[in-house]
Design a protein that fits this description.
376 residues, 5-stranded mixed sheet, 11 helices, 10 strands, rod-shaped
């Protein structure tokens, strides 16, 4: 069972490789709850509060607590909306029960998730469930009952497994789309008399890589979160702004690739060289092959395509690719830690915009086809 749990969480947090610090030394001094089982968020949480004070009837004490409309308090964090109900056990001990649901699409559900995230310092860690001090208190804050240590897990193994499967399927779909077709530059217009090489593969596009990278991360994260929480309203404003920046860069890059440029002139010069070599007697096969590779620039491999143009490797492409990778990994870390889309700060969005703007500014000066030898 422990191996299965580790595999599930390793898949869901594959790009992370870090664990979240859990618990504090002060918690070890808290009294321990009677139950030894782990409570999974979504299940009712029941605390045995023990016998009522001397001279107090259990039923009367339970009615008094019910009238106070108490809610759960986990690790000092008030959980809004989780109103508790109190009763008496067969032994005459006071028992309190409250919901730990994090599902829903409204503001109240979002507030519950945020409160549990604060209580956990994030939902997940590779160490499994966390022991938290839990009590009951007023919705305005504070504790009415003595806290007890309870083992709580952010999601069931079943939900984690389903989330991991959906995440992997969606991510694999975007990877397939990128490598199969959608990650490459638009098809180059053929030139009359110059045949396109058989099985020709256009170079990979950095702008398309970035768009599919972020689309895959956001979509896969959304599906995984939906599987666990049931909430459809988890896209943050920062995430939408990020997708707007990435999408805008892709549109501008596509526009730049399709507008008339000096590359078209250089392609026709190479085409003329190809036709001249083909007309020679005998045909100059080496010159024909060299010219053909410039008329239809082929893919040189994933990283060379993403990081270089006709002049070689470019620093502005490296900085965009590096920042995209780092921010994407950080985004996934926050998703697994908090079970929600991160709200990216204005500074992070501004830095992403600057990175993309720098890339596009330099891209306008790039050459995808070199000038033929001996041509001014």
């Amino acid at each position: 069972m422990m191996m299965r749990r580790t595999i599930i969480r390793t898949i869901f947090a594959a790009v992370l490789g870090t664990t979240i610090a859990a618990g504090g030394a002060a918690q070890a001094q808290m009294p321990t709850a009677a139950a030894d089982t782990t409570v999974v968020l979504g299940q009712p949480l029941t605390l045995n509060l023990g016998a009522p004070p001397a001279g107090t009837d259990c039923a009367t004490q339970a009615a008094t607590l019910n009238a106070q409309a108490l809610v759960l308090v986990a690790n000092g964090q008030t959980i809004p909306g989780a109103r508790a109900s109190f009763g008496c056990s067969s032994k005459g001990e006071l028992v309190g029960t409250a919901s730990t649901s994090i599902a829903g699409n409204g503001d109240d559900a979002a507030q519950r998730r945020a409160a549990w995230q604060t209580a956990f310092s994030g939902f997940f860690s590779l160490a499994g469930a966390k022991s938290l001090p839990v009590a009951f208190g007023p919705a305005t804050g504070g504790m009415t009952t003595a806290p007890k240590m309870v083992s709580i897990q952010g999601a069931s193994d079943r939900d984690l497994g389903l989330a991991a499967i959906w995440f992997a399927l969606v991510a694999a779909l975007f990877l397939f789309a990128f490598f199969r077709h959608f990650g490459r530059t638009d098809a180059i217009t053929p030139i009359a008399g110059v045949p396109m090489p058989a099985n020709y593969r256009a170079p990979y596009s950095l702008a398309r890589f970035q768009l599919l990278w972020w689309s895959g991360i956001v979509t896969a994260s959304y599906v995984a979160i939906l599987t666990i929480t049931g909430s459809m309203d988890t896209i943050t404003t920062g995430t939408m702004a990020l997708m707007g920046i990435v999408g805008g860069t892709s549109v501008l890059a596509a526009f730049q690739d399709r507008r008339p440029s000096d590359d078209d002139t250089r392609r026709h010069q190479h085409a003329a060289a190809y036709l001249a070599a083909a007309a020679a007697n005998p045909p100059d096969q080496a010159a024909m092959a060299a010219s053909l590779a410039e008329v239809y620039p082929p893919s040189q491999g994933l990283l060379p395509d993403l990081l270089s143009d006709a002049a070689g490797y470019n620093i502005h492409r490296l900085q965009l690719l590096a920042w995209t990778g780092v921010l994407g990994i950080t985004f996934l870390y926050e998703v697994t830690r908090t079970l929600g889309m991160p709200e990216l700060s204005a500074n992070l969005l501004a830095l992403t915009g600057i990175s993309n703007g720098t890339y596009f500014g330099f891209k306008m000066q790039e050459q995808q086809v070199p000038t033929p030898t001996g041509t001014a």
